[in-house]
Amino acid sequence: MNILFQYLILFLQIYVVTVFISGCGFLLKKYIFNYDDKYSFENNSLWGFILISFIALGLNFIIPLNSFNNSLIIFFLSLIIFWKKYFHQPIKKFFKKSIIVTLLAFILIIHSNVNNPDALLYHLPYSKIINEYKILIGSFNIHHRFGHISIIQYLNSFFNLFFFNEKGLLLPLSILVSSFFIYLLKEFKLLFKSNVSRINSLVIFCILIVSLYSFSRYSNYGNDAPVHIYYYLIIVYIFKYNFEFSNNLLLKQISLLSLFTFLIKPFYLISLFIPLIFLILNKNFKYFFKSIFFLFSCTFSFLWFLKNFLVSSCLIYPIKISCFENLIWSNPTQVINQKLLGEVMSKSWQDRLDTNISMTEYNQNFEWLSTWSNNHLNVVIEKFFPIIIFLALFSFILFCLKLFKIKKLIHKNNLGSFIIFITSLFGSIIWFLNFPIYRYGQSYLFITILLLIYFFIFQNLDEFKIFKYKKFLNIVIILAFIGLGAKNFNRINEKFSDTITPYMYDDIVHSNISKKFINNFNEFTHYYKEGGGLCGYSISPCSENKDKNLRFKTKFGYRIYYINKS
Predict the structure, then answer these.
(1) Which DSSP symbol is given to 116?
(2) Which of 253, 284, 315 is at the close of a domain?
(3) Which of 241, 267, 284 delimits the end of a domain?
(4) Is 327 a member of any domain?
(5) Beta strand pairing status for 524-528 and 550-555?
(6) Are the C-beta atoms of residues 157 and 132 closer than 8 Å to each other?
(7) Residue 557: Cβ-neighbour burial (10 angstroms; 0-12, 13-18, 19+)
(8) HSE-up of 521 (CA within 13 Å, CB side)?
(9) Which of 172, 150, 151, 152 minimizes the C-alpha distance to 161?
(10) How confident is the prediction along the chain (566 residues), in pLDDT tens digits per residue?
(11) What total number of domains does the chain contain?
């Protein structure tokens, strides 16, 4: 009975958070995009994450995002949502959608684990800092990975609440993935009914099936699943609106999605080229630059770059050209080392046979290629092979059904799809040359291959004949959701006796986490985890850093961490 009660409490917590996030998405659409959309619950949720991230980021410059502050802010935001009558809609329809999203998120998270080791190494330790302090200047000197922090850590930290405690940090990602699945399902059904967008719906269908396969386990999410989800959303919106370059709403939507994708992972900076080209084709510069959306986006970007500057002295860490080297918290040596270390570790440096080769030598002239091919390439093939098989098999079935009505490759929609293709292809190339780990480049690779199929297969399908095979597509979707459920129910069955929510700490009990100080300067005690840097959500600030030259001082109420070079 005790575990059933825990299930009920967790379900209610997820439900409350889900409804709140969806309400925030409604506010963003109403005031940033200037249109009222009460009835798209799951879509509103996806936009709600963006507004909440913006609020959390901005507030952390002046206050810590502790449970009191967060609860107070959410209370007032909830009042605004009620005041704007978001919940004044058919109760039955609203309840049905909110329950479906909640139930799926619940299944994804129970008896799961956090994304280890990244979550325990620096995601959760930085979230702990956000919850306890306003922005710590130079905090990348505490832990070099703090310079890589994603907007997702600010999003998660916002849900440390009175009635959830720190476990609230774990809820947003499961809700994000759940909302994404349901939204794709809805869009596929809507577009498939339309003669205009029926072929485009096949692209959304493929994204849905691959996403159900790729994002089936909560423990794999980290910062990777969110960036792929929002990159996919850019593609979905463009195909949804059938490449309408003149559509001002589409332009604003993909612009904000691209910006948020970049804020999740700077590696996806290239996604910003998609709305840029659309803006050039749109030609309505006056409308775009004078809108409140543009002001919101500029403010969001400014706050993010300011955060990066204060945390690491770089606008984009660890790109040296974007760094300021004459600040007290600057650490140029660490910036250079981290850029190089990040690249070589992505290229299987740890598996090299020649132990005498330096990192610089290993990274030059494709010296890394053979080592990477013998090791991580197998991972890429293992992860991506089922996706390739699915796309190939699906295309072959369509071909065998003789649904083709041969058209020229030069099609009116090709320009829009070609823009996406080139962007994804370029992203795939950059991924391979710099950070060839599968989880970094998954969406670039998938969209590149999918659009090749779109050019040569999908565009040549007969709009009317394909409608006859709606049942076949629905069966595939049902089987994919059953596979998702089976995979998670198997995990739940195996871990039924464990805690129902993910561990936020190491395998060592929280109370036994080592509290060793490495210096004591101006009443500053810095903790590190004995035996490794897996601090999790424990004492703060905590890292693997044992540099006794680390110092701290206060100016204008802000803590500044720096390395004593004397």
Answers:
(1) T
(2) 284
(3) 284
(4) no
(5) unpaired
(6) no
(7) exposed
(8) 15
(9) 172
(10) 588 888 899 999 999 999 999 999 999 999 999 887 777 899 999 999 999 999 999 999 999 999 999 999 999 999 999 887 787 777 888 889 999 999 999 999 998 888 878 888 899 999 999 999 999 999 999 888 999 999 999 999 999 998 888 889 999 999 999 999 999 999 998 888 876 677 888 999 999 999 999 999 998 999 999 999 999 999 999 999 888 888 888 999 999 999 999 999 999 999 999 999 999 988 878 788 888 999 999 999 999 999 999 999 999 999 999 999 899 999 999 999 899 988 988 888 888 888 888 898 888 888 899 889 888 888 888 888 899 899 988 888 877 766 655 555 545 557 888 999 999 999 999 999 999 999 999 999 999 999 999 888 887 776 667 777 788 889 999 999 999 999 898 888 877 767 788 878 654 434 444 445 555 554 455 666 655 557 888 778 888 777 778 888 889 999 999 988 76
(11) 2
- Please check whether residue 154 lies inside any domain of the structure: yes
What single-letter DSSP state applies at residue 357? S
Longest dimension (CA), the chain: 77
What DSSP designation does 475 have?
A: H
Same domain as 380, residue 279: no
Check the CA dihedral 257-258-263-268 and report its sign: positive
Q: Are residues 87 and 215 in the same domain?
A: yes
Cα separation, 111 vs 168, in Å, equals 15
Element (H or E) spanning 79, and its range?
Answer: helix 67-83
Task: Locate 77 and state its tokens.
Answer: 């935001």
Query: In whole angstroms, what is the distance from residue 235 CA to residue 238 CA?
Result: 5
* Residues 551 and 561: beta-carbon distance below 8 Å: yes
Instruction: Confirm if 124 and 64 have CB atoms less than 8 A apart.
Output: no
259 and 137 co-located in one domain: yes
Q: Which helix (H) or strand (E) segment is 167 a member of?
A: none
Tell me if 120 is assigned to some domain.
Answer: yes
Residue ranges of E strands in 420-557:
516-521, 524-528, 542-543, 550-555
- Domain hosting residue 399, numbered range: 373-491
Please report which residue ranges of 88-170 form alpha helices under DSSP H. Answer: 91-109, 118, 124-132, 151-157
Partners of 165 in beta bridges: 161
Tokens read off for 312: 């690491």
Q: Which two tokens stand for residue 280?
A: 């050039």
User: Are the C-beta atoms of residues 562 and 521 closer than 8 Å to each other?
Assistant: no
CA 457-461-467 angle, to 5 degrees, is 130
CA distance 140 to 307: 12
Residue 531 lies in a domain: no
